């Protein structure tokens, strides 16, 4: 018996050693695999922070699962780490995908007991031809594929769950919907692209490597499916659903808010659906550009939209579409033409000298020379925006050269006439609640705020201007000089600093 016991003990030790050896090898394989794709996430900075170590190397394809990310989050909670992260969920409907066929999805940070939901549509321009889509797929893959998405993100600005950074919406259920459809959230796909031309040599190799011979565009369908997947999370019991977005995501709010309201109503929800559009209120081009704008360069918004609508199988709100003849539906992408047809309440955040609007006119602040004609356009842009926003009930429009505001960590510092952006949104919310409950809105709580000074950067709370080459902060006058303008010829005092511009207008900051 003693001998048999010793034999059993030796067998047990051998089994433990073998299992440990297998685990060590498996761990080594996992580490090697997860480290292989680091650095693939390129492009513009996100309004949220990736927080899962090594998560940008995710190689999940179609039919993948977010369970591993959920396990990681559970481990973080067990270890006492912060849990302010939004976790990735892929859509249950696997037929609704990103451009490259990988599963679309959303990030969710639940706030138990809250009946307020903030849904955010990410921005990122669009692609509108095979050439521009191929380039986008190669250079900014996260905007066309979920294969490089991290498992968790942490929001900033209005997406933050910290009360100091986000005083009014931190305790809402926050949903970040990544932009991977490249269609300004308008596509209802599938809309196959024309057959690719025969390619030789390197071009043929590029197509094989990127798998970019055709794409699907399902932006509007992605929003619909996200709401379906949020039903078990409690969105049917919501009191308020705020559909928000920046840049192309802001246009996505304009295009989809009525569909979202209708979808929730059909589900039996009693929520009031509201829209928050940040830097998505564009104007038509004013400067004379090329007659046939090349598809491979940045143009004014009209050109990509006109071409893209056919490629995306894009849709616009019915009431706006009825205003225009067939082929002119692209005009509904412009907020000042669409706004009067919407029934859902809308709040517009818009810099009066929007950088993307300027880029559409080939004006790159701090990046290249500027002509006197372009300076004149820049000066007049503030008045153009102000006039277009005259009939908008809820608006925050500061005389600044910038792009996007609500996802910036310092968004609560921006002010117009002494009222901060976050305060203006809170006033708007309270006014809607009062109206909904047949009460008189409180006085002294403004939410239609447009700067009275109409000169670039005349608002003292503007984000600073940055030289693209040196990354140094510059005053507007310093930047104009760097861009080759003669200040004296323009009637500006080179030594006057901010006072030189402020003297041209009344103080409205």
What does the model show?
The structure is a single chain. With 509 residues, the protein is an alpha/beta fold. It contains 14 helices and 17 strands. It has helices spanning 2-34, 67-78, 130-139, 201-210, 219-230, 248-266, 302-312, 318-321, 335-338, 355-359, 372-388, 421-436, 476-482, 498-502; strands at 48-50, 86-90, 105-109, 116-121, 152-155, 173-177, 240-246, 272-278, 346-349, 353-354, 394-397, 401-402, 415-416, 419-420, 448-450, 465-466, 473-474. It has an eleven-stranded mixed β-sheet, sandwiched between helices. A two-stranded parallel sheet has the order 10-12. Helix 5 crosses helix 6 (248-266). The longest helix has 33 residues, at 2-34. The model is unreliable at 1-5, 7-47, 51-82, 192-213 and 502-509 (pLDDT under 50). Residues 200-209 have a biased composition (Basic and acidic residues). Pfam families: PAE. Residues 1-18 form the signal peptide.
Outline of the structure:
This protein is α/β, with parallel strands linked by helices. The protein has helices at 2-34, 67-78, 130-139, 201-210, 219-230, 248-266, 302-312, 318-321, 335-338, 355-359, 372-388, 421-436, 476-482, 498-502, and strands at 48-50, 86-90, 105-109, 116-121, 152-155, 173-177, 240-246, 272-278, 346-349, 353-354, 394-397, 401-402, 415-416, 419-420, 448-450, 465-466, 473-474.
